[in-house]
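Input record (Table S2, row 469):
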Amino acid sequence: MAYDARMRSLLALSVVACLAACGGGTPRPTHPVTRVVVVGAGMAGITAAHALDAAGYDVVVLEARDRIGGRIHTVDLAGVPIDMGAAWLHGARDNPLVGVANAYGFTHVADDVDDVALAVSAVEGPFDDREIADAFTVADRFFGRLPALRRQLGPEASVADGSDAYFADLALTPRATLLGRAMLERSYLELDYAAPLPLQSLRWVDEDPTLRGGDRILLGGYGQLVERLAEGLDIRLSEVVTRVVYDDQGVTVHSTSGAMSASHVILTVPIGVLRAGTIAFEPPLPEEKSAAIERLDLANLEKVVLRFETFFWDELEDNSGLVMSDVDGEMPGYYDLTSEAGAPTLVVLYGGDYARSAQATLNDEELVARALANLELLLGRSVPTPSATYVTHWTTDPFSRGSYSFIPVGASPADMDTLRAPVADRVFFAGEGTRFRTSSTVHGAFLSGVEVARTLGVASTGIPTAPSR
Ligand SMILES: Cc1cc2nc3c(=O)[nH]c(=O)nc-3n(C[C@H](O)[C@H](O)[C@H](O)COP(=O)(O)OP(=O)(O)OC[C@H]3O[C@@H](n4cnc5c(N)ncnc54)[C@H](O)[C@@H]3O)c2cc1C
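Output record (flavin-adenine dinucleotide complex):
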C-alpha cells in the first residue's frame, strides 16, 4: 500500500532489521561476481548499485528515461518542488529511509492525512461532520470483517465482491451507504491499493503490515534522497534495455547504445514492464516465473497537482476532501499540500477503473478541467484558474505501466517470491513488487535493493543511517 490514508491497528514490523539480515534467505551466487549491470535507476536499482559500488564491485546502471528516480519524480512546479510519484515516507518509526534521510541531513515533517474534513456528492450534496465520522467508522470496520468475508466468499473473491457483501449486511440509509462506500472504496481502497476493485484480491488486501510512527514528507521532495544515494555511480541515462542474454559464461545486456557484458544483471523494472514483454530474455525466463509475472499487475494511482496564487480552501487546510461526482470514481481525493510545499497547492488523487479509462481517453486539459470542476463541487463555490498545473501518466508511461504492484484475484504473495528468485545464478530481480510485505512502497524498493546486493555478497551497504532527533 503506497498511500496510507487510513488509521488502522498498528502492527509492528522491524524492517530496519532487514538492513542487517536481508539476503540470508536467497542462496549466494556460485559464479564469481566481476561486473554487475543494474537495469533501472529507481530506488531499488540505485540502492543496489550504491551498496555494490561501496563494496568495491564494478557496477553500471542502465536507465531508460533521461532522469533517475523512476517512480520517484520531484518536479519544480512554478518554483516549488512537488512529488509526482511517491511522496510519503510511511511509518516513520519503522521506515529505514527515515534514518537514511536523517543521516543525509534532510528535513522531514509529519503529514498524516487520515482525516477527511469535507465530503460531498453530486446527488446528495455536502455531508456533515457526524456523517463523515460515521462513514469513517463503517469503512474502517470493513477491515475487521475481512476474515469473515473471506470465509463467506472464498479465495477467488474480489475486493468489489467483499465490499458488496459487507454493505448488503449493514442496514444503512441510502445516504449513509453512499458515503460509507465512497470512504471505503474510493478513499481507502482505490487510493491505497489503487487497482480497480473487481481486480483486487479480497484474500490478500490489507495483509501488508502497517508501519508505526505515522507518515512523513521530505521537504524539498523525495528526489533528493535518490539523487544523494546515486552520487558517484556510473549511471547511463536514455538506455532502454531490450534484451538480456545469459548463459554459463555470463550475461549480455542489450540497450539503446549497444551491448554490455557482465557476470550478473539485476533487473529492477516495474512488473508492468516485465508483463509488457518489452525486454526479451534469451533463453526465456522459466515458465514458473513468466506465469507469476502474468498473474501479478500494477495499480493505477494518478495525480493532478493544482498550484494557485492564493490559498482559498480554509475548510481543507492540512486535510483532505472526498468527492463523489456524477462520474463513478472521478478524482475523489483532494489533499492540501500548502504547508509542505510552501505555496498554495492541492494534490488531486485518483485510481482504479476511472484512472485506467481517463488515462486512455482524456488529455491533460480535460483532466485538469475535471479536477477543477470537482473542486468546485467540494467547496460549493467557484474557484480561480490555477497558476500552474501538472498531470501524471504513470499508467501509460512505457517505463512504469502503472503506479505500484497489488495482488490481483488469482495471484498470491508467493508470485512475488517467484519473481524475485534469481535465474541461472546470473539474472537477479529487485524492486517494490518483489517483496510482498513492503510492496508498493519506496522503502520496499530500498529494502529489495539492499537484499539483492547482500545476495551478491555485499557485507556492508555503505548507506548511512541516523536516528531522528
Ligand atoms: C503516484 C504514485 C504515488 C506513490 N506514492 C507513494 C508514497 O507516498 N510512498 C511510497 O512509499 N511509495 C509510493 N509510491 C510507490 C513508489 O514510488 C514505488 O514503490 C517505488 O518508487 C518503486 O521503486 P523501484 O525502484 O522498485 O521501481 P521504479 O522506481 O519504477 O524504477 C525502475 C526503473 O526502471 C526503469 N526502466 C523501466 N524499463 C526499463 C528498460 N527497458 N530499460 C532500462 N530501464 C528501464 C524505469 O525508468 C525506472 O527508473 C507511489 C507511486 C506512484 C506512481
